Amino acid sequence: MDAAHEAQGAVWQLTQLTLEHYDQHRYDIRRGAAIDAVRVTQQAATTVELEGPAGVAQAGAEYAEAIDRHIHPPIQYLMELSTGPLTDEQKDRYRSAATEAGLAVEDLRRRFVPLARAALDELVDETDRGR
Description:
By secondary structure, the protein is mostly helical. The protein has 5 helices and no strands. It has helices at 2-16, 24-51, 54-70, 72-81, 88-129. The longest helix is centred in the last third of the chain and has 42 residues, at 88-129. The radius of gyration is 18 Å and the shape is elongated.
């Protein structure tokens, strides 16, 4: 969850650049930070896959994948913006893709959290019974 939260924050920072005048240096810095944060999220999902129950592992992998897909709309938009002003159609396409990706992240977070919480509660209960 921490890794996912950091990645979503980094993607949000990258997304803020779509509202400003294009700046290659700021884009490079924020894109790198977002890519790194998404990579950490994917590593965390791999850990969940190795250590958690199958259902939690699947939900974690899907959540991490949604976060990875969430980075693509702002990167695409900013790459296109680097070549010059965008058309209204390009802007609309970006907004639609960004909204869809954001909703997918939130839906998959809502799926993952209760499964992870239930698995952790079960582990605590087993530990308490073993005392």
